[in-house]
Specification:
The strands form two sheets. Strands 3-2-1-4-5-6-7 form a seven-stranded parallel beta sheet, sandwiched between helices. The chain has a five-stranded parallel beta sheet with strand order 10-9-8-11-12, with helices on both faces. It has helices at 11-27, 41-46, 58-61, 65-72, 76-85, 87-100, 115-123, 154-184, 234-245, 264-278, 309-312, 325-334, 347-356, 371-380, 384-398, 402-416; strands at 2-6, 31-37, 50-54, 106-109, 127-131, 201-203, 220-222, 251-254, 282-285, 301-304, 318-321, 338-340. Helix 4 (65-72) runs antiparallel to helix 5 (76-85) and helix 12 (325-334) crosses helix 15. The protein has 419 residues and is of the alpha/beta class.
């Protein structure tokens, strides 16, 4: 059985699907094909999965001003406006999503690939919505892009989810319609927001972080996180182990795919100053644009381009990051406290939620980041109460077996031919 997974976004969006694909291939007679930006080809193939390239290197595409504005949107209005700007780039992916699914027996798709719902109907095969974040309407808590706003009650909570669904649908709707009209001279049958339709849905999120609400349909499953356990090999591993063994556990600082390349060196210096103020060593990860290596780096700082979170995070004292869903999941599982510097979109929600859970310092929005407040936040996470809560939550997440649950749900749905 060939299952195609349609992904959308940066590494944090793609990696959970690789983990799910690997687990499915181990569990049954499945071949897994992952459609993702072409710069993820080596990562996907490394784990023995088929790869279908979406055009363009996402790290380069992210330099497009439209994409950059969407990645930096820090309130719902800006998100709506920035997503409108994405309609043209998103259209370019629709034909590739469609072609990636040819010959498939089932489709698993990211919310950013909403066309999958209609492709599955046309091909008469089952599909499953697989989200790396909670997005189904509930009265228990607001949608993630509204989560850090004042709480206005259960009715408002549900309304925010409906608004978010419309934002996600609005980003893809015109592109799907244009592709379908060009390809088939008609709209897809039952052409309406697929997120409003009752369909099998799996969510890569821990029930210890956002418990599954009682008002969700039985078709929605909060399985727990889907982790991809990567190692570190060769010279990088030797370099890391030498640094780790040369002093106290260091602080990790990395902002993933986010950051302004024109401010990268300035951000690096800010981080170094903060670590000096609180007397900590650091491992800094440049990511795509967040930081850059300076001409003179202190001996107390190790700077890398990228590193396996699964391998490194448990060996650290504090994890300073942007609050992307994937990085947040890895930090939570490690049992190490976080300091979250949200830049945009749902990152404010993760910063707020981890602070509510007592496993992180109060989040510092990127626009308000200084060496002094970063140093104070890092110091705050050394309180015994924070460290103990992070350790306990990490142990719970480690025992949650999210991948096993997700695999069983996928197998059951595809066995029944659910659509």
């Amino acid at each position: 059985m060939l299952i195609t997974m349609l992904t959308a976004g940066t590494r944090g969006d793609v990696q959970p699907y690789i983990a799910l694909g690997v687990a499915l291939q181990k569990a049954g007679d499945y071949t897994i094909r992952i459609a993702a930006s072409e710069n993820f080809e080596s990562l996907v193939k490394e784990f023995g999965l088929e790869f279908y390239p979406l055009p363009g290197d996402l790290s380069k595409i992210a330099e497009d001003s439209r994409i950059r504005k969407a990645m930096e949107a820090d309130n719902p209005l800006k998100i709506i406006m920035s997503f409108n700007r994405l309609k043209s780039p998103i259209f370019d992916f629709q034909k590739d999503f469609y072609r990636a699914c040819q010959g498939s027996d089932g489709i698993i798709y990211h919310p950013g690939a909403a066309i999958a719902y209609f492709i599955a109907q046309r091909l008469n095969i089952p599909s499953i919505l697989a989200s790396p974040f909670p997005m189904q309407p509930t009265q228990d808590y607001p949608a993630l892009i509204f989560y850090h706003f004042p709480r206005l009650g259960k009715g408002f909570n549900r309304l925010t989810h409906l608004v978010f669904e419309e934002i996600m649908w609005g980003m893809s709707k015109s592109g799907i319609k244009a592709f379908w009209q060009k390809e088939f001279r008609t709209n897809p049958p039952n052409f309406a927001n697929p997120f409003r339709k009752q369909q099998p849905t799996i969510v890569s999120c821990s029930n210890y972080v956002f418990p599954k609400p009682q008002d969700l349909p039985v078709t929605v499953h909060n399985t727990g996180y889907w982790f991809l356990d990567e190692g570190v090999n060769g010279l990088l591993k030797e370099e890391l182990e030498d640094f780790l063994s040369s002093g106290s556990p260091p602080v990790y600082v990395g902002f993933g795919s986010l950051g302004d390349p024109t401010q990268a060196e300035k951000t690096t210096q800010l981080v170094i100053n903060a670590l000096n103020l609180c007397g900590q060593r650091g491992i800094l990860v440049t990511g795509w644009h967040g930081m850059a290596k300076l001409d003179r780096m202190p001996e107390t700082i190790l700077m890398l381009e990228s590193v396996s979170h699964a391998w490194l995070f448990p060996r650290l004292s504090v994890i300073v990051h942007h609050g992307g869903a994937g990085t947040t999941a890895a930090a939570l599982r490690s049992g190490v406290p976080s300091v979250i510097i949200p830049h945009a979109n749902d990152q404010f929600a993760w910063g707020t939620r981890l602070y509510e859970l007592g496993v992180a310092a109060k989040p510092i929005p990127r626009k308000k980041l200084t060496a002094n407040n970063l140093a104070a936040a890092i110091t705050d996470t050394f309180r015994q109460e924070v460290r103990q809560k992070a350790k306990v939550l990490g142990e719970k997440i480690q025992g949650e077996k999210g991948l096993e649950k997700a695999v069983q749900i996928v197998m059951d749905c595809f066995k029944q031919g659910s659509t």
